[in-house]
Amino acid sequence: MEKIGIWLLSWYQVTAKYKRGKSMTQRIHILYHFDNNDKVDQVSQ
Questions:
Q1: Is 22 helix (H, G, I), strand (E, B) or coil?
Q2: Residues 6+ apart with CB under 8 A from 23
Q3: What residues form DSSP beta bridges with 25?
Q4: Beta-bridge mates of residue 32
Q5: Per-residue pLDDT tens over the stretch 2-43
Q6: What CA–CA distance (Å, rounded) separates 18 from 30?
Q7: Residue (of 35, 38, 43, 44) closest to 4 by Cα position
Q8: Contact, 31 vs 1, CB < 8 A?
């Protein structure tokens, strides 16, 4: 069930570089839901 209300959606890309020269890039998406007191009551990644 989807919550009705205020949601903050954020997304970004992270690149990790390793000591041996290789790297890994991944995208991250996070959703924050706020309750009636403007406090985060749910986080999904």
A1: coil
A2: 15, 16, 17
A3: 15
A4: 8, 43
A5: 788 999 999 999 999 999 999 999 999 999 999 999 999 999
A6: 25
A7: 35
A8: no
Closest residue by Cα to residue 43 from 10, 4, 1 = 10
5: left (phi over 0), alpha (psi -120 to 50) or beta: left
The pair of three-digit structure tokens given for residue 14, joined into one six-digit string = 């992270």
Contact 32, 40 (CB under 8 A): yes
Bridge partners, 13 (sequence order) = 27
The Cα–Cα gap between 28 and 44 comes to 11
